[in-house]
Amino acid sequence: MTDGEIRELCHRFFDAYQDRRVDELAELYAPDCIVWHNVFGREQSGADNLAALPKSYEGQRRRTYDDRTIDTFEGGFVIRYTLAGVQHSGHRGALWICIVALCRDGRITRIDEYMDSSKFAAWAGRGPASGRAS
Amino acid sequence: MTDRELRELCTRYFDAIERRDVDAVAGMYAPGFTFWVNLTGAESSREENLATLREGYALLRRRTYDDRRIDTFATGFLARYSVNVVQHGGRRGSFAACIVALCKDGRITHIDEYLDSSKFRAPAGEA
């Protein structure tokens, strides 16, 4: 895949994620896609990851994936971004996250996600204001 | 910088941090180097980062950067790795992290580091 194709795939992925288009995400994941999170330290299948999304979306009124800084390398991309969330209470929070994605034939074959779980409570408006308000 | 030069710089960087060679690390940082970490969202200067490195060494008996997976892009490198630490009391811990480094003329100009601070509090061996 070319640099342009990988960048386009990255944007399609995050646009679909933010707009809650799970069907489109399913098209962007390769059949054998694996998703790994540094918080849990374990892998899950792309199918399991997608299955959990509708429930996950219920937690917030809105999520946007902002400040995207994308770099591509041979076989994938790394993206640094701000996940801005608006809770149903109106509370706003932001998390800084980095994703490394491996890509093949126009699809994502693996995602490694890095974030700080200590910020989750503040992001959701449940804990001390240690998270950045957006 | 070429792919090979970036990979070599990345490897030299982690090797120097492991062996506590702060002078070598300083030599790899460009004069205007800045360091950002997702734990604070704050950017620190070259000298501040080097001071943090020195202070951090006193807290642990050993710290190694293992399972390094390096990818390079036009202006820098990405490294995913496991940090394995041994405290002075012998307790061990491990956590996964990644850095994105921007490079120019053989030196690192900026680093963004992503990790999970909750792993610092996990009992040794469960991080």
Q: What features would you describe in this structure?
A:
The complex is a heterodimer of chains A (134) and B (127). Chain A has a six-stranded mixed beta sheet with strand order 2-1-6-5-4-3. Chain A starts with a helix and ends in an 11-residue tail after the last helix. Chain A contains five helices and six strands, in the order ααββααββββα. The C terminus of chain A is likely disordered. Chain A is α+β, with helices and mostly antiparallel strands and 134 residues long. In chain A, 28% of the residues lie in helices and 45% in strands. Chain A has a single domain, classed as Nuclear Transport Factor 2, Chain: A (Roll). The N and C termini of chain B lie far apart (36 Å). In chain B, 29% of the residues lie in helices and 47% in strands. Chain B has a single domain, classed as Nuclear Transport Factor 2, Chain: A, CATH 3.10.450.50. The longest helix of chain B is centred in the N-terminal third of the chain and has 16 residues. With 127 residues, chain B is of the alpha+beta class. In chain B, helix 1 runs antiparallel to helix 2. Chain B has a six-stranded mixed beta sheet with strand order 2-1-6-5-4-3. The chains are: A alpha+beta (134), B alpha+beta (127). Chains A and B meet through strand 3, strand 4 and strand 5 of A and strand 3, strand 4, strand 5 and strand 6 of B.
